[in-house]
């Protein structure tokens, strides 16, 4: 059997692509950490999990770490996950030590990469509704954000014109 | 002396002839396999979420596009189902010439009922498939699908799984795959490298690959 798995995703390039177009109303700031474009997808019936996405920018020189997400009323458990595609095999792993955001860098939580994993949903994620969660950073402290429920297929860079 | 003679007169010629025979066999075997498609010919017996039997004959009537996933998957599975639904919409009438299947990678949690309701959110042409683990394993094996349960904390688990779509012709032969690009696009790949597909035209590429 011959499979051609020729396409490797160039993560760095993807990030560059978002850079110029990623503008949102929902900006949050705590210490040197800036967050924007916080969203989650609406869920199909019976879905027990959902994923949350955002852009996190660290304006400090020192690395900061997103340690946990708490105060989530709509799920039993929340984890920070990394998704890896290896030879077209999807692998998902919890980041037990949190997600590092290097100084003067930004990290995108997005489909096919990092995400906040909401496990054991107590209610379905419904379009237009906001879902609260508190992000806890090692250095910058804690901040509560709203995950906006959007349709699947939503892309922060493509869709932002529609919202203004 | 005698040993050396036997070696020269008997064993060496025998080895020589054997090696020629093996070379010839290898040549024909390799040539054959490079022309033959990988046919799915295992006797799996599974069920659709509607309670219909799902066996090998179901793959012999129409071409099929098959994805393997599970409902506890937050990211790649719903994204794939959404992209597949978009493709079905784009195909319009041509979509009825293909069968679309979502085969569970997690039969313990994905019962027929759960899977059916879950898939109801996506295009209705996507048919859910589940069944016994042993029967599912036959299908995974036949289509070269990697599925592995990974245990996490608190009795929770996730599943590593192949996230490309398998494309079969109406003879149940694997002729191509569809893979993700950035979770927002699908790329069609001809397994035999005969056709180089332009990136942006998933619908056209599928029609061309399946000769619809």
Walkthrough of the structure:
- The complex is a heterodimer of chains A (164) and B (212).
- Chain A is mainly beta and 164 residues long.
- Chain A is built from 2 helices and 11 strands, in the order αβββββββββββα.
- In chain A, strands 1, 2, 3, 4, 5, 6, 7, 8, 9, 10 and 11 form an 11-stranded mixed sheet that branches.
- In chain A, strand 5 and strand 6 (89-94) form a beta hairpin.
- The longest helix of chain A is centred in the first third of the chain and has 9 residues, at 11-19.
- Chain A is globular.
- The termini of chain A are far apart.
- The model of chain A is unreliable at 1-22 and 159-164 (pLDDT under 50).
- Chain B is α+β, with helices and mostly antiparallel strands and 212 residues long.
- Helices cover 36% and strands 25% of the residues of chain B.
- Chain B contains 5 helices and 10 strands, in the order H-E-E-E-H-E-H-E-H-E-E-E-E-E-H.
- In chain B, the strands form 2 sheets. An 8-stranded mixed sheet of chain B has the order 2-1-5-4-3-8-9-10, covered by helices on one side.
- In chain B, helix 2 links the parallel strand 3 (64-69) and strand 4.
- The termini of chain B are far apart.
- Strand 6 of chain A pairs antiparallel with strand 7 of chain B, so a sheet runs across the interface.
